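Look over what follows to help learners.
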Amino acid sequence: MILVRPSPFEVVSKNEMKDTMNLPNTILLANVVSTLFLVGLIWMVQIVHYPLFDDVGEQNFASYQQRHQTNITYIVGPTMLIELVTAMLLIWYPVPGVPKSLVLFGVGLVAAIWLSTAFLQVPCHGKLVKAFDPAAYKWLVNSNWIRTIAWTARGALVTWMLVRVLSK
């Protein structure tokens, strides 16, 4: 059976296609998908969702915040775990053509995101679940730029890695 590559003029056999989807490339693909999902999500949260906290009102804010924390965890938690695990696996299952230094830089960005989440954003949410606190809210929005920038950098990095793999 003959399969057509994305380029309309190149044809590869089924065996050559199997060679392309080896374990390192599969790990990279899972990493790219999880990272790019989180990039989109963090920008939506930063630009749309967090600014709307202002409009909830003090009377309903604690309930709203509790629901936010519970519901967002179902989306963010598994995806962040997939991103973390696949980023780490790329250290032990290197993708040909991707420098290990960039893989390690990517893992460093994941670490920065997790540390920011644990030590900056989670404590803010902890305060906000009790009642609206203007200082905690302002710190949440401002400190969340750390994650927004780090995830955006990761998105660019993993996209570059994928382009390297696909261009071979």
Remarks:
- The first strand starts at residue 2 and ends at 4.
- The helical segments are 14-20, 23-52, 58-92, 100-128, 134-166.
